[in-house]
Automatic annotation (TrEMBL):
The keyword Transport applies. It comes from the Eukaryota. Keywords: Endosome, Membrane, Protein transport, Transport. Component of the ESCRT-I complex, a regulator of vesicular trafficking process. Required for the sorting of endocytic ubiquitinated cargos into multivesicular bodies. May be involved in cell growth and differentiation. Residues 82-171 form the VPS37 C-terminal domain. Residues 175-196 have a biased composition (Polar residues). This is VPS37 C-terminal domain-containing protein. It is a peripheral membrane protein. PANTHER family: VACUOLAR PROTEIN SORTING-ASSOCIATED PROTEIN 37 (PTHR13678), VACUOLAR PROTEIN SORTING-ASSOCIATED PROTEIN 37B (PTHR13678:SF9). Transmembrane segments: none annotated. It comes from Albula goreensis. The lineage of its organism: Eukaryota, Metazoa, Chordata, Craniata, Vertebrata. SUPFAM superfamilies: Endosomal sorting complex assembly domain. Its main location: membrane. GO terms for molecular function: calcium-dependent protein binding.
Amino acid sequence: MSGFTGKLDSYTMTQLNELLEDDEKLNHIVQELEETQTVQQAKDMTLAGNRSLAEQNLLLQPQLDLQKNELTKRYRLLQELFEAYQLRKSTLDQHAGSGSLDTLLALLQAEGAKIEEETENMADSFLEGGQSLDSFIDEYQSKRKLAHVRRVKIDKLREMVLKGHRLPQAPVPSHNPTASPALNPTSDTNGSPMPP
């Protein structure tokens, strides 16, 4: 405020008293000070910068909203995929250890359908004269017998799948080195050594 005091140094007491009574003139003197103008310029520059940033933000707002919506959609999709994964994992866990009955059933059904198709083709070939009677009878009966056996297996396996049965597991051999007394050929039923 050295500029302000410098201006007032030349004022008489009467002029100073008049200045105190005249707010408009006092404000005019303050506005003409270099310090006041510097502060005002900085204020104007700050306001202009804020206005420019606000305008840029307004221009970017549609893009921001679009990206927010896209992010929301992707998050929901991720949630759906995760829930589907959890459901699938739970289903697989429930069927774990079932000995792949479903897979075995599907393979047997595919083989059964293949046999049925082969027998139909054989019959068509015989009717068209492409095969002798003896050869047809032997091969056809063999195929039909195999188809019947597989159909029985498929029916039994399907029943097991519906009832939730599992394939039998191979017995785990015992690794206990100590033999049971009943299985020891050198002992009697009471576990005592047999005489030589």
